[in-house]
């Protein structure tokens, strides 16, 4: 999309034909990217939240393995 951002309509249409895109597809892609990038910061997981989630998953996995081993011994 960066390639086509500064092109005029004629050049953009030529680029689309050359690369197998329809101009409408290019516009839809641009709109989708704009919406995703405009998402509020609160909606994105922070680095600390992601780290905490990974640690929680690791702890739960460890507990599950221990419980599975205990059940196999019965």
Write the layout of secondary structure elements.
Layout: H1 2-5, H2 9-19, H3 23-37, H4 47-73
Explain what this protein looks like in three dimensions:
- The structure is a single chain.
- By secondary structure, the protein is mainly α.
- The protein folds into 2 domains: 1-38, no CATH class; 46-74.
- 77% of the residues lie in helices and 0% in strands.
- It contains 4 helices and no strands.
- It has helices spanning 2-5, 9-19, 23-37, 47-73.
- The longest helix is centred in the last third of the chain and has 27 residues, at 47-73.
- The radius of gyration is 24 Å and the shape is elongated.
- 0% of the residues are buried.
Structural class by helix and strand composition: mainly alpha
Specify the number of helices.
Answer: 4
**Portion in helices:** over 70%
The count of strands amounts to 0
Q: How would you sum up the major sheet?
A: none
User: Can you write the helix and strand succession as a string?
Assistant: HHHH
Distance between the termini: 61 Å
CA-based gyration radius: 24 Å
Average of per-residue pLDDT values: 86
Domains, number: 2
Strand content: under 5%
- The multimeric state of the shown protein is single chain
Which residues sit in consecutive blocks of at least 5 with pLDDT less than 50? none
Mass-distribution shape: elongated
Short key terms for the protein model shown above:
mainly alpha, 4 helices, single chain, 74 residues, 2 domains
């Amino acid at each position: 999309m960066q390639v086509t951002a500064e092109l005029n309509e004629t050049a953009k249409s030529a680029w689309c034909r050359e690369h197998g895109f329809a101009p409408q597809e290019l516009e839809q892609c641009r709109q989708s990217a704009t919406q995703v990038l405009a998402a509020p910061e609160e909606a994105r997981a922070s680095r600390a939240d992601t780290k905490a989630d990974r640690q929680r998953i690791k702890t739960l996995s460890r507990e599950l393995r221990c419980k599975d081993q205990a059940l196999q011994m019965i």
